[in-house]
Amino acid sequence: MADSSDEEYLGTDWLSYSERTEWRDVEPLGQDDGPSPVVSIAYSQKFCEVFDYMRAVIAKGEKSKRALELTTDALRLNPANYTVWQYRRDILRELKADLNDELDYLSEVIGQNAKNYQVWHHRRVIVEMLNDPSNELELTENALVNDGDAKNYHAWQHRQWAIRSYNLYDGELNFVDRLICEDQRNNSAWNQRFFVIKHLGFTPEVIRRELDYTMDRIRVIKNNESAWNYLVGVMRQGDNSSGQLSSYPEVVACVEQLYQAGNRSPYLMAFLIDLYREQALQLKAAQDDQLARKVYTLCEDMATKHDVIRRNYWHYVATHLKKQLAKDKEEQH
């Protein structure tokens, strides 16, 4: 009996390869699981036959139009099979096939298997062979937006590759801003924004603009880890990528104002801990200095109220700061 998924992909009117005249010259090659397989996978009859013929074709090194069609059937049954994808590429090269047709085929496959690494990798190779990335931004936008999965790692990876390899940065910030506006917690979109800005260059003007952009969004959703991570990442890009959090007093003032207004977002509090810890170490403060005490208090609040699951980490941060400050004091003497 055929598997229901086989019926879906190959159709109920599918003709067995053993019944096809054009395949009578090929002896199918069965899968060798050894003399005593521990667990035999219950492949469907169609699956076994397609891959038996696939193995036979690979064994004899046949690269023909019928072999290409066979890979299509095999990949419908198992789109994650790297060996079949690689052999398909070999056939395409041998036949000097129209690679634009292959891109059309891949658009269909990606629509059904958007989280399959092998499909995206094959797409990349074909685009490189054509040296034509003109469809890639639209393709990935469809995967990220129209298919309702704006955090698809494979689509983002492919998009970054296309942008970086073919200098397609124009308009990308507008695309990313649209995704962030639609979902301000979309960490993938924030990551893409950093990717683009890093290419353009973190000049003082760009850093200032990005800090304003991010703080505007933090004011809307204060408990947004993605925006806080982006904020710190941008601040660190100042002073030749050795930026201190205290180098941007307007941001510090805004964050402290949010805290004083009663906001206890763990990401806001983690920002303040990093800020006060940096300042205490930079000033070589005493263990009981006001800055150090702020760190200890915030760490205790995180450990007992706002981020209990990581309480051991916050206890470590406080203890480590005490040791660092004590060491600094000894060295001063």
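the 2nd protein, sequnce then structure:
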Amino acid sequence: MGNNCNSCQYANDSQNTDDGMIESFRNQPFIPMPKDQIGYTDIDLSADSHVPNEQWVCFQEPPIEKINLRQSIQFPHSNKAYEFKDFVYVGQWKDFKPFGLGTFYFKDGNIYNGISENMLPHKMGRKYYKDGTIYEGEFYMGKKQGKGRYISQGSNMIYEGVWIDDLPVHGTETWNDTMQYVGKYQNGKKNGKGKITWKNRYYEGEFKDDEFEGYGIYQFEDGRIYQGHWKKNKMSGVGVMKWTNGDYYEGQFENDQKHGYGLFCIGGVKLTVHCRFGSLLDN
């Protein structure tokens, strides 16, 4: 998901989860989930036909907050823990394999609580990562797919939005209530149109790989507004800088400075100027 734009010159920005967070996903853009092709009619749902009667182990489940989901299908549930090569499982079963609502305690330290198919997270669940991060939302065959919320270690950053193939594509990213980004992503980074808002300033426009790139508007803390082109977080290209008293400069910029020809309007008087990295040159 990129970073909180520490590389930006102007970006001076300074677990707990609950089951109700799922409801907040309803207003996010919707990505259709692939349709299930499995039918459940005329299946023997007895425990003897689905739950192993051996191989269970003594296992004390870690104290995690489990997601509030109903069992989506009525395959049998076992409270016994069963050990597999890479995880210990407690939950529902189908054909002697984990299926439906249950909890996977992976030996690498990750935990998944939710619905699974083919021993993979599927449909809806919550995953606790060993580094302290949490994802809760929709899955498709082991990958984040659909609407979901990602919470970083210590809740420093929260992303809520749409995922495809384990990566964010459109949503809201909030850092410690000091910075918020709303917009698009590509390959896990801010790309395309979006808006970053700080306490007393904002940038709205185009991004490339987490940086201001292309056309955008930036409002400074002192009220100045720059409207124009950017390159690698710097004002570069043609743009307009407007001051709160009505004065403005319209012309060329490079590396955050007036560079090239432009038009100054000061107190209503217009003057054509030639600048070199912020300094006026004699015409």
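The CA atoms of residues 89 and 163 lie 26 Å apart. The radius of gyration is 26 Å.
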